[in-house]
Design brief:
The protein has 416 residues and is α+β, with helices and mostly antiparallel strands. 35% of the residues lie in helices and 24% in strands. Strands 1, 2, 6, 7, 8, 9 and 19 form a seven-stranded mixed sheet that branches. The chain has a seven-stranded antiparallel sheet with strand order 16-15-12-13-14-11-17. The longest helix has 22 residues, at 391-412.
């Protein structure tokens, strides 16, 4: 060992101080294990705090069978963990930390404080009282030949002996908050099969005209319906300078991303007035326009926002047919079926979450990596994705608890 290398020991090393890692730490500490949580950042839960900036959406209130369907192909692999730590239990857990929750109009569940920081502070106090140690500014770099965990710290390199390890390093979205996906290369070198990390719950690139970019960047499209193939969703979207993003876009992002990956594009269809049928729209658009501009007429007759009208103008330009020349029938049809060509996926660093990760075939029922006995994993490191709405955090908490139970079982069986 070089002079710059220091060494220490812990019973359980948890790498990553996000929801999955901290939940694993709580389960293990409650089981009597000595736990140290290592994180590369100067403080714990950086991405968790970011998730709470607009109101912390902890989970969702829908019935569990429907809830589980949100995980798509990963549902069979996540079901046991989520059933063991379901939304109702997460709400009880939050309340025990002094943060009661409520169900919003959309069915989403939030702490009454509507913030992540009070919950995180209370959680860290509880973990500290349980004896959990926190080692910050420790960037994990892999293992040495003796099986010790290696960290880069401000004081130099550090080697740690641990009886068992839980990896909860997240995906690769928002890398400035700590999850940069650097672990992929480390685990792949050990033969662990990993699906490439890809943006999830992300925006998409659109070749907007300069007029639309300059005038409507940052403007919302509210009360719309989006469809792509057989998939449809209602919600909101936001026009960005480079494309489009927002909750309704995120809900379709997996399908849109795969289409762009295979064919280089995806045609998204936007209904600007989904609650109005064709006949009602035609009746409103058949009113005399008089001396009004087309924009004013559409704003009053069809109750369209300026951004929605701009989107219509953009579609008309792309088709080569001026919007003003369309009949009321054609205009009504366009209003509820505006084609938007998506040409690319926004960078993974700006995505809310990531798809891809460690294949579920690589982990056993206790979330231990088969090729690395005594090493467990949880959260976004695993190959799953889900829409926003509380599903991301719920699965992170639940798999963290499952990995914690698995690691505790490993310790109690006397494995070394």
């Amino acid at each position: 060992m070089s002079a710059a290398m220091t060494s220490s020991q812990t019973e359980v090393a948890i790498i990553g101080a996000g929801p999955a890692g901290l939940m694993a730490a709580e389960v293990l500490a409650r089981g009597g294990a000595g736990v140290t949580v290592y994180d590369a950042m100067p403080s714990a839960g950086r991405k968790f705090l970011m998730a709470g900036r607009g109101g912390l959406n902890l989970t969702h209130s829908e019935a569990l069978p429907e809830f589980l369907m949100r995980y798509g192909e990963a549902q069979p692999r996540l079901a046991t963990a989520i059933e063991a730590f379901p939304p109702a239990r997460l709400r009880v857990w939050s309340e025990a930390l002094g943060q009661p929750t409520f169900i919003g109009s959309s069915g989403r569940v939030f702490p009454t404080a509507f913030k992540a920081s009070p919950l995180l502070r209370a959680w860290l106090r509880r973990l500290d009282a349980m004896g959990v140690q926190l080692a910050l500014r420790h960037r994990w770099t892999g293992w040495n030949d003796d099986g010790q965990l290696l960290f880069q710290t401000p004081d130099g390199k550090r080697a740690v002996n641990a009886r068992t390890t839980v990896l909860a390093l997240g995906g690769a979205s928002w890398p400035r908050l700590g999850s940069n996906g650097a672990w992929v290369e480390t685990l792949a070198a050990r033969g662990v099969a990993i699906s490439p990390l890809r943006p999830a719950n992300c925006g998409f690139a659109v070749a907007w005209s300069e007029i639309l970019r300059d005038r409507f960047e940052g403007h919302p499209l509210k009360g719309i319906a989006l469809s792509f193939g057989s998939h449809a969703v209602r919600g909101e979207a936001i026009i960005t300078r480079t494309g489009i993003e927002g909750g309704a876009i995120y809900a379709l992002s997996a399908h849109l991303r795969e289409s762009i990956g295979s064919s280089g594009q995806a045609i998204l269809h936007v209904a600007l007035r989904p609650d109005l049928g064709m006949q009602d729209l035609m009746a409103q658009l058949s009113r005399p326009r008089g001396r009004q501009s087309l924009s004013n007429f559409l704003r009053k007759a069809a109750h369209l926002s300026p951004a929605a009208i701009g989107l219509l103008q953009e579609a008309a330009i792309a088709s080569g047919v001026p919007l003003s020349s369309l009949s009321s029938v054609s205009l009504a049809g366009l209003i509820n079926d505006v084609p938007v060509e998506l040409k690319g996926v926004a960078p993974i660093a700006r995505a809310i979450s990531t798809a891809g990760g460690i294949s579920f075939d690589e982990v056993d029922a206790d979330f231990m990596i088969r090729r690395l006995p005594g090493v467990f994993t949880a959260g976004e490191m695993l190959d799953w994705e889900a829409p926003t709405g509380g599903y991301l955090l719920q699965a992170s908490f639940a798999t963290g608890a499952a990995a914690g139970r698995g690691a505790l079982k490993w310790l109690n069986e006397g494995q070394i």
